Amino acid sequence: MTTTSPPSFSTRPDVAQIGAIAWVRKHLFSGWFNSLVTVVLGSLLIRSIVGFIGWATTTAQWKVIPENLPLYFVGQFPADQYWRIWALLWMISALSGLTWGNLSQNVPHLFSRTVLIWVGILAVIFVLAPTPLPYRLLLLATLGLVLTGAWAGRYLSQSLPSFGLGLAIAWGLSFFIMLWLMAGGFGLKPVSTTAWGGLLLTLFMSVVSIVLCFPLGVALALGRQSTLPVVRLLSTVYIEVVRGVPLIALLFIGAVMLPFFLPGNVRLDLVLRAIFGLTLFSAAYLAENVRGGLQSIPRGQAEASSALGLNTPLTLGLIVLPQALKVAIPSIVGQFISLVQDTTLVSIIGLSDLMRISRAVLANPLYIGRYAEVYLFIGVIFWVLCYAMSWGSRQLEARLRTTN
Predict the structure, then answer these.
(1) Which residues share a beta bridge with 188?
(2) pTM check: above 0.90
(3) Which residues pair with 185 in a beta bridge?
(4) How far is CA 89 from CA 1, 95, 180, 208, in A?
(5) Buried b (16+ CB within 10 A) or exposed e, 39-48
(6) 255: Cβ–Cβ under 8 A, 6 or more apart, which residues?
(7) Gap between the Cα atoms of 119 and 111, Å rounded
(8) 171-214 pLDDT, tens per residue?
(9) Per the CB 3.0–4.6 Å rule, which of 84, 194, 227, 305 could disulfide with 310?
(10) Residue 257: is its pLDDT beyond 90?
(11) How far apart are CA 273 and CA 260, in angstroms?
């Protein structure tokens, strides 16, 4: 008779560990090579951070920023008309707050702990901003307007089923009110576009170009997928030609050559010509992003809609296009972010955007050599804009997610 003994194990089973120490061991010090890489890169990172803090607190001359804040934000806009810029900002803040509340109507808590932390950080930044006290109070009032609008938007969305449609109409009408506040006329003092500059001009060109290039890009994507040979050929030629031309070339075409194709008594504003170039360029790239989304939709979707009796426009508008745009959200937002960054090129054709304003500030004998401070400030502004768009796209994706 043979007996069997239980198998012996040379090692004990690993004990599950959780917490920060376990995470560090697993991801940063899991082996000798990972430990070496972590130590080397960590040392370089710490050295860079310490060096930057030392430069920012001892060597850097930050006075170049607060002394030129009006130039950075509104360019040469008349100082006695700044109230129009504040009115524009408050209108955008109110609509943004209402939109926030509308999108968060089904969220258990409108102001979560994370939101409150960011609100507190913004409030501290506004209080410590290197601006006169009235401007700090106005910035705090703007923040309060956003929060109030969010609360009101949540309440109205739950009470009025058509509030979302009304909000969309309000955003559309707000563009014309913004344009009236910026350009003047109809009772307001006219302000030439040559006085627009800085962040104001950058945002204006970005928003208008995004609004115009989106429907054009969708139309080009649908045209390239069309069964009509002429429409497909024209759309393909446009997309391939524009994508093969640098943006700066299109800007020069819009600034220099476009007037030759217009009647002699018609003179387009330089800002409009720059928007023309940005729109044409971005629409071609956006068309390919949307086309990728269209190709991801199974053919059975269109066939099923046809079996239900829907014609081609209804199939595209109700079945195919909404799904394609949802799939293409990351690439579309990425193109919009590139468009915002591409607005820096308009300084080459004479517009006073943030980059041109920066060069004008650096040309002042008082600020010669302050390149790092100026361009770091401009970089932070663009990072805030682009990160806000990225965060918004992630929230939109989360809201539209229908599958796990």
Answers:
(1) 185
(2) no
(3) 188
(4) 92, 10, 14, 16
(5) eeeeeeeeee
(6) 270, 273, 274, 277, 349, 350
(7) 10
(8) 999 999 999 999 988 888 999 888 898 999 999 999 999 999 99
(9) 305
(10) no
(11) 13
